[in-house]
Every structure is written in structure tokens, then in C-alpha cells.
Amino acid sequence: MRKNWYRLDTAALIFPATARRDWCNVFRVSATLTEPVDEVTLQQAVNDLRPRFPSYYVALRKGIFWYYLEETSSPVRVTRDYAYPLTFMSSRELRRCCMRVLYYRSRIAVEFFHSLTDGRGGSVYLANLLARYLTLRHGLKVPVGGLIRDLNEAPPAEELEDSFLSNAAPVASPRSEERSYRLRGTREKDGFRHLTTGIVPTAALLDLAHRYGVSVTALLAAVMAESIIAMQDARCPRRHQRPVKITIPVDLRRLYGSRTLRNFSLVLNIGADPRLGDWSLDELCRTIYHQLRASATPRHMAGMIAANTQPQELIALRLTPVFLKNLVMDAVYRRSGESGGSLNISNITNLDLPAALLPYITRCEFIIGPQRSYPNNCSVLSCGGTTCINMIRSIRESELERRFFSRLVELGVPVDIESNRR
What we know:
alpha+beta, Chloramphenicol Acetyltransferase, five-stranded mixed beta sheet, 12 helices, 15 strands, 23% strand, globular
């Protein structure tokens, strides 16, 4: 039987080209239940989702001119989570499947190679996996709607489309921007990732954001920028400093009404220049909030989309063998792909699960890994009144986490800290 295959979407093209032996772009979404996970039931739920979500059950293949995704010939096996989150996903593993389904005690986690989807697409899969698992386990009646799909229907074409191609502007926006300040530290030699999770009441975070008149994302980015500015102040005089910018992914589905489950987000680098003087938290909040509002518009993002889609239309690039494309894309990524930001704050916002599931779930989490060229990252997910702020790093020094979470506590947000620090 002929296997289904999918072209990589516009955002996904960069990830196989920039992967290295010690780094590839993987993220995790997970849920902690009120009871231990039953492996057999979880495996059945994973199998049951396959016909409805075929684009997740794929392996990475290398063609002459492009990479592509091909339906796997074997089941996706549920495995016990045995190490720290986001362990390296090797090219050999990607040739088997680009997704992992893991469990440990009462936690269910799914890890995705970023060429499959983005955080919002991954959260849709997690929501449906939880719904199916808990239905099998407890006989729940989970209504279809919102995040929950009808498993008896065929996957609609719009869920599988590359929405970048249909929303690009005729003219591309320029890519150039000033380099931002970078955090440095002592790299862990064995690839270990330090994960620090701040668990906060969503209501307290919303109250603080409303006090400053901004969104939660803008508030967290402002507190993070304030922390990094303080760290840069301790290391060098103002005249030699660089701008501090937070890379914030924007979910384009909301702007364009897309239903795709593949990648459909772009990042904005938002922040402040400490060389201009001292910034209060209120100033940082308002500056970052208004930069986000001004930039995350359909017309502006369409120009950014065009900067990524237009090169694909060049005949010379289409006919270039994939190994040469990899060299070009890797060089572009090293020069400009991550240079504009100090770190990411990726906020999926609220995972709006059906009420029938909430009594069985204590919290949900979203974890992105460190980027290739900078060691710290932050990801945020809210569910059922609890927000988990996950800060991950590939270096030993924990100063940023200490400053960031301490500042939230100073501002009146209670924070419970968990860590895998050894």
C-alpha cells in the first residue's frame, strides 16, 4: 500500500537543515493527571487518534531537492519517560517517527520535532489524546468542539494545509535588525537540560497584567527583559551594551482564521535598549505591549511571511540539491535566524479543555528547548486556573531564573518552584 506523504510547511523547512548532532528543535506538551497513567490504555488512545491526525504519525525523509514527511509503517509506541525533557532526537529516530508519546507516574507527555507542528498544533493533539485516554479509562462523554475533534470524521484539508503560502504579501519585509544581548554561561557537557518550573495561580498573573494595562505575555516579557537588563548592567558599562529583546512567537491562526494543525506562527523580537537610560517595569510593560500590538497585525505579518515564502519560488533554489540547500539555510540561520533575540517566551495562553476532563487533570505544561545559539528559553501554558512557566537552560548558572521568579514574587504573584536540578 502506498504511504501518504506531506511537504514540509514553510516554517518547517529550516529545522532539518539546522539540526546538529547535539541539537534539534523539539518541544513538549504534557498533562499531569490525578492518578497513575495506565500504559495499555494510553497506547490504545494513541492508536485511536492516528486516522484523525495522520500528519503527526510521520517520519522525516530526505529527497533529492527537499525533505518531506512520510506516514510511518509501524505504530507509534508509548514509552516510559526515562530522562530529562527534550532529550536529543537523532536523525535515526526522526527516520522512524517525529513524535514521542511518553508517560511517567501520573504524567502524559508528547514531544514533537518542530517540522511537524508548533505549540498550538501540539496542544490540539494533547487535548484529543487526553480526551480519548480518559474516555477509555473512565467512560467519559467528551463533547466535540473547541480543541476536541470528532475521531470518526476524516481530517479536513484545511488542517493539513501550509497556511503560509495563502497569506503571504506581494512584497517581503526586510529581515535585518540589530543584534541583541546574549546570555552566556558554562555549558553542560553531557547535554543535560536544567528545567525550573514556576507554578502560579492564573488569576494572580492576570490581575498583575491588568494592573499594568497589558497582556500576560507582555508582562512576562517585560519582567524577563528587566531581569536581563540587570544582568547586563552587572557585566558591562551602558555604552557597550546591546538591546535586550524577547523573541515572542505569534500564533497566526488567530490573525488569519486558519485551522491548520501544521506550523503557522512567526516570531517578533520585542524589547528595549538600555543604552537609552533606565527603564522602569511600567515603561517596559507599555513599550513591549505596544510593540506587540503594532507588529502582530495581518498586514505586517504577511510581509514577514513573504520573506520566507518568496525564496521557495526561485527556480534556481528549487533545482538545488538538498545538501546544498542545507548549507545555505544553515548559514542564513546562523547569521540572522536567532540574532534578533535574547531568549524566547512562548506562551500558548490557555489550554481550554472541556469541563469533563478537568477533574482528572492537575496541570498542563509546555516546554521548548534552548536554541542553538543561546542557552535559555521560557515557555508558558495555563489550564484549569494554574499557569506553568517553564524556564530551561543548557548552562549551569541559574541567575536568570532566580531574578525572574523573585521579581514575580515581589510583584505579588505567589510562585511554587519545582526543578530537576541535580
